[in-house]
């Protein structure tokens, strides 16, 4: 009896003395297994169709700063879509800058030739690929009426513009009193595919759908019915949308809470499982996604703390088999990557470095025992201005908590590492508008180029300070899959 008691005390003592040992984060780069593959344009952005209704509002496609920030994200998909796409009517003959004059809650509005030209010239100048969401509410005899789309496509071909992807409608699963349901939209997609194939000048293109908006059973049911009605044959990429919460319920605390971050996981698993069943050879994308819906949360979605939701979403999605993530938005709302003054929000810088440093394949990293630390790993991008070579591995990690977390880099301890660590830009901490990279606030020095984004080069174990997040590249990792 005394013996058992003594052992128990010993074990308890061990735990008491070594609480930290059990929280220790160890990463073994050579033991990580490949989880998934992603493409070179995994991260894209959106601009809401609502901006066209406002005749592009405050967007100035000629602004050198706007162009510089956009070029910083190339290669990149731009999806122009959203609720207003189903009220947009292209009009080749009018130059009227005012949309419709009717007083309906959601009036139809006109996209003029000039507005379409501005968008196409912009994507071509900055090297982006355009995905455009067509109006599915234009109908005839219970089917989609493609007349207006044909007018737009003919004009597009005539001008030599290049569209990469097409969508049809937006979030029909949550649109109040939607005039079209899941089974009806399936033949509409087949019609779209036929139409696009009938215009050889448009090739190659891909079709994305159905851009369901709810998180949970409503979107799963909608997608299932769409697939059962044969819709899967007409799409190349299955798309769904995700926001963690409504903007009016957002708090700073929720934006760095592991439970909130984890809430994405079951949704990703459910959608990818469904797609594996119906369209096993096709890609699945988060076709529109951000921190909180309804424009993003004021003084939260545009602040440092929002970067937790963004970086974690990129990581979790890549590990679970999502092949594209389109960020709502590049410009517009509190969740824009750049704000109304064309100053980059923290998420912009995070995205630029993600694109430059992170590539395919994606590795599985066991979730560390310390729930405040989240880690992802991929092969390093060897085709960016950063100049990394084959074999390099990039880790990215987020410290949600207020204490420093040491990382034991195990088999990389004697190899050089390049650290790109982000921290809040000023004393407002998690709600700071700016962001520091390796201790220096990031800002454009001039309108024509991004500042250099340089690593701190070192060796040995790594300390991730409170509320920091960032990338660590091991140029000498020599993972043969990373070519
Ligand atoms: C375009 O606008 C003109 C002038 O307002 C109008 O007559 C025409 O019906 C419109 N076309 C479409 C496709 O809406
Ligand atoms: C918008 O256009 C659609 C399709 O032509 C039409 O059914 C609908 O009534 C229009 N909406 C308004 C508010 O005029
Ligand atoms: C969609 O509407 C059509 C026509 O009203 C109907 O036949 C079909 O059952 C509906 N589909 C679903 C999934 O409700
Ligand atoms: C995922 O599917 C499971 C099993 O059907 C269900 O219990 C769960 O609520 C779903 N979660 C989400 C977020 O859709
Ligand atoms: C995180 O969110 C969960 C669920 O909303 C809540 O139960 C938990 O208390 C939160 N954690 C912290 C540290 O506030
Ligand atoms: C490297 O990047 C350039 C510029 O984005 C692109 O044109 C090229 O296809 C890429 N090469 C490879 C091998 O991915
Ligand atoms: C650190 O965060 C924990 C909750 O995660 C909280 O209980 C504690 O007061 C915080 N400490 C400081 C110094 O802010
Ligand atoms: C790192 O170098 C030290 C000293 O040379 C050596 O003892 C250790 O085994 C090396 N660790 C690894 C993981 O290579």
User: How large, in whole angstroms, is the Cα Rg?
Assistant: 24 Å
Which blocks of ≥5 consecutive residues have pLDDT under 50?
A: 7-19
Question: Can you name the CATH architecture of the largest domain?
Answer: Alpha-Beta Barrel
Strand content: 25-35%
Major beta sheet, specifics?
A: 9 strands, antiparallel
The total strand number stands at 24
The backbone outline, from C-alpha atoms, is globular
Q: At the fourth CATH level, what is the homologous superfamily of the largest domain?
A: Glycosidases
Helical residue percent band: 25-40%
* End-to-end Cα distance: 60 Å
The overall number of domains is: 2
Count of separate DSSP helical elements: 13
Alpha-beta classification: alpha/beta
CATH class of the largest domain: Alpha Beta
| CATH-defined topology of the largest domain | TIM Barrel
Bound ligands: 2-acetamido-2-deoxy-beta-D-glucopyranose
- Kindly report the average pLDDT value: 94
Structure commentary:
The chain is of the alpha/beta class and 483 residues long. The chain has two domains: 24-36 and 363-482, Immunoglobulin-like (Sandwich), CATH 2.60.40; 43-358, TIM Barrel (Alpha-Beta Barrel), CATH 3.20.20. The protein has 13 helices and 24 strands. It has helices at 2-17, 19-23, 50-53, 64-71, 113-126, 147-159, 182-197, 217-228, 252-255, 258-262, 264-278, 306-319, 346-357; strands at residues 25-26, 33-36, 43-48, 76-81, 88-91, 109-112, 128-134, 139-140, 143-144, 163-168, 206-212, 237-246, 283-293, 324-327, 358-364, 373-380, 393-399, 405-408, 416-424, 435-437, 440-441, 456-459, 462-464, 469-474. The strands form five sheets. Strands 2, 15, 16, 17, 19, 20, 21, 22 and 24 form a nine-stranded antiparallel β-sheet that branches. It has an eight-stranded parallel β-barrel with strand order 3-4-7-10-11-12-13-14, surrounded by six helices. Helix 8 (217-228) links the parallel strand 11 (206-212) and strand 12 (237-246). Helix 8 packs parallel to helix 11 (264-278). The radius of gyration is 24 Å and the shape is globular. It starts with a helix and ends in a 9-residue tail after the last strand. The model is unreliable at 7-19 (pLDDT under 50). Bound molecules: 2-acetamido-2-deoxy-beta-D-glucopyranose (8 copies). One 2-acetamido-2-deoxy-beta-D-glucopyranose binds next to helix 7. Keywords: Signal. InterPro entries: GH, Glyco_hydro_79. One of its GO terms (cellular component) is membrane. Pfam families: Glyco_hydro_79n. Belongs to the glycosyl hydrolase 79 family.
